[in-house]
Every structure is written in structure tokens, then in C-alpha cells.
Amino acid sequence: MATDIKPAKGKLGVLCVGLGAVSTTLITGTLMARKGLSNPIGSFTQLGKMRVGRGDNKQYRHVGEIVPLVNLNDIVFGAWDVFTDNAYESAMYCQVLKPEDIEPVRDELEHIKPMKACFDPDFARNLVDPSFGRVPDPLWAMPQDTRWNYAQNLRRDIRNFRKENGCDRVVVFWIASTESYIPRNEEVHGSIAGFEAAMKADDRRHLPPSMIYAYAALMEGCPFIMGAPNVCVDIPAMFELSKKQGLPIAGKDFKSGQTMMKSALAPIFRTRLLGVEGWFSTNILGNRDGQVIEHPDNFETKRISKASSIEWILEQDEYPELYSDIYHKVKINYYPPRKDNKESWDNIDIFGWMNYPMQIKVNFLCRDSILAAPICLDLLIFTDLALRAGLAGVQEWLSFYVKKPMTYDDERPVHDLFQQFAMLKNRIRQLGGYEADQELD
Question: Vertex 336, ends 333 and 339: CA angle to 5°?
């Protein structure tokens, strides 16, 4: 095992922005797993084995035997939210898990009470719209203030959480709603100086809450993970700040359902040199994410994230006769009866030998938070590993877990699920003192 990685000693604090369906499913499953009452299915850090070495030196080992990972018993959870519900109340309300799978850890869940959120309803209007059902009353949020003061409040929250829980390290993780789309503004987002000046000027148009959380986390020495498709840490100011602070940043948008299928199917077409004429994707879901995305401004943020993978995987410049004119459409529909049980449909029009058309149809009835929870667990554990290994800036090796992998502006993202998995394993090999031996095309 490599010796230049700091050991995973002490407690790891995980501060979740949002204490809803995904967060409570993550927390409950983690607490159940460390009691031996549940199996962390879907988690590569907990169950995965991989090859290290080649030839006579080849071995298959668990990930935790190759690199030093934090023990589940050493993770402490906290959160911010606009609802006052503790983690137990929220888990029961969200109805992702059955009560019998929540009750064994009720005491620990009740202990996790959210701090007041940094919240701006202009970036998630449907979340507090009475026509969409439950509304926080009163809104459990910080008093209206400048963006700069919000950041100072969040920094104080992080310091208090670290001290009260005796945490050696803290990771801040956005597991909240998709914010409305904002394009980059170079004056505000192009540098730390411009970003801080905009906060002090209370520029609400260009600074959504997620950016304030990211800034506060990095300033407090905490890595930041973006679990939604928001424009947030994928801006030059955050690239600069993460490198200056020597901290990892990762994201964005969990690759849990439909996009996971796309990132696996599209490489098949490219590998077999089958043409693609059109790809129509639609979803129904009824959780708070679906409620928020029902607003067109928030849907645009999600649409951009979900639509990006096909164009990157099916290389139009390399194979213009096969992929230059793909009609790719994505729709998401809010349908409350389904709650967290999302259903997605994909219709793919392909063509083969002598241009003869064919169709593929995929109907995926998935459980959104059940698929997202192990992704969250792996992301926070690997991000902590990156922190202890001194890996600052964008963690492209974690692209395996996200819909819209972050890269620096002059780099090409990898969307192919299988190449992403090779990237992940190569980094683990390197950190474990082995050769990174899976080459990428």
C-alpha cells in the first residue's frame, strides 16, 4: 500500500446540503450497514474487488485492501435544510424505505437535526409553492442577508459541527434540489476576486445558494461534492480556490438511472459501428426533485446534464456518417403518485447494414434514492481519500458516478461508463502503489 496517503484516522464529518429522500436513504443505509443489519449493495468502496498487478503478480483485492478508506463507523452525518424535520422524520415522510428498515436506527436518525439553510426561493420556486403540496412553515432558513454574510454563517456552521462532533475532516455534499439554470458570467465566476466582490455586492442573479455552500466549504478546508446538475463548482473561481486551498472538488449530478443506461448502451453502438438516428428519453417521478424540476428554469439545468452524454460518447466528428444528425430529446414529468419510484422510457432509432432501420426500447422502473445512495457513499469516501492523498482540484477519476463529469475548460470529459470505470480503477491502483495499467482510447 502506498505510504504517502495520510491514514483514515479519526472521524469524518459529512455535511449534507439537503436532508430529503437521497440524504436520509444514504444515512439510514450507512447506519444499518455498520450495525450489520443491511448489505451496502451498489457500493464499490464496500463490496468491490479489482485487479492489481499483471501476469504472475496479478491479484484481485477489495478496494479497501488497496487504499486506506474511512471506516463506516467513523462517519458522522449532519445537514442543512429548509424543513425542520430530523433525519428520522424526513426518512418516514419521503417513504423511500419501509418503516421496519428505519426503526432499528431511529435514535441515531433523530439525533441528526438540520441547521438553517442558505436558501433563495428564486432558484427553486416549486419547492415552496403551495400548489405542489408540503411547504415549510415557517421556512427553516437563514434570515435574508447578503451572499457574503450567508457564506460567513455557513463557515461558522461548519466550524461548530466539526468541534461538536470531534471531526478530524469534513466533506460538504450538495444533495439538494436542482437549481434554476444560470450561464457563466466571467466577471463574477472567472476568479476568486470577482466571486468575492460579487458576494459582497450581494449579486443574487449570478450567485445561487450552491455556490455559497461551495465557497464556504472550501474556505473552511472541506472538499465539496456537487450531486445536482447546478452550475456551481465547475467555474474558474472554484477551480482556482480548490487548488489554492489544496482541496478536491467533484461532481456533478448523480448517474443513477436513465443516464447510467445511456452511458452503457451508447458505447455498444459506437463499438459495433451502428448508426443512431434519434434518441428520445422521458421520465416520470414524484419526489421533491421532480417537483422542483417541473419548473422550466430548473428543468433546463437538468436537461443540459442529461443530454450531454450521447453527443460525447458517439463521436460525431470521427463518424459523421453514423452520428452527425442525431435527434436527441429529453423530457421529465412530475407525477406525484410515483413518489421516489422513477420510471424512464427510451426509444432509440438505430440503423445498420445498408442503412436498414431498427429500434430499441428501454423501460426502467427504478428507485431513485436506492440507486443514488451507494453513489453518494462512494463519492464521499473517495473524496476523503483524495483529500488525504493531497489531490486538489477537479477529481475527474470520479466521473464514473456522475451524469455530467466535471473537467477543466480545456479538457474533454469522458462519458463512456466502461472507460470511466477504467479511470476509477487506474487511480485506485496508482494510489495503492500499483501500475495504472488500463489504457483509455
Answer: 100
Residue labelled with grid coordinates 461532481? 251
DSSP string, 76-108: EEEEEESS---HHHHHHHHTSS-GGGTGGGHHH
Model-level pTM?
0.95
What is the length of the chain?
441
Q: What are phi and psi of 361, to 5 degrees?
A: -125, 130
- pLDDT grade for 1, boundaries at 50, 70 and 90: very low
Our separate counts of H helices and E strands in the chain read 16, 13
The residue ranges of DSSP E strands in 275-384, in sequence order, are 275-285, 327-334, 343-351, 357-365
Residue 286, helix vs strand vs coil: coil
Mean pLDDT (the chain) is 94
User: Are 404 and 352 contained in the same domain?
Assistant: no
- Contacts with 303 (C-beta within 8 Å, 6 or more apart), sequence order: 330, 332
* CATH code assigned at 306: 3.30.360.10
Write out the residue range of the structural domain in which residue 322 sits.
Answer: 258-367
Would the pLDDT of 211 be above 70?
yes
Cell of 161: 459541527
Q: Average pLDDT, stretch 276-289? A: 91
Percent of the chain with pLDDT over 70: 98
Which residues on neighbouring strands pair with residue 351, listed in sequence order? Answer: 275, 357
- List, in sequence order, the alpha helices (H) in 314-398: 320-323, 368-388
How many separate domains does the chain show?
Answer: 2
Contact assessment for residue 377 and residue 26, using Cβ atoms and an 8 Å cutoff: yes
Which single residue is written with the C-alpha cell 440507486?
371
Q: Cite the DSSP H helix spans in 99-247.
A: 106-111, 147-165, 186-189, 192-200, 209-219, 236-245
Instruction: Give the three-class secondary structure for 271.
Output: helix
What gap in Å lies between CA 149 and CA 155, rounded to an integer?
A: 10
User: What is the percent of the chain where pLDDT is above 90?
Assistant: 85
For residue 169, the domain's CATH number is 3.40.50.720
- Are 258 and 364 within 8 A, CB to CB? yes
* Domain membership flag for residue 3: no
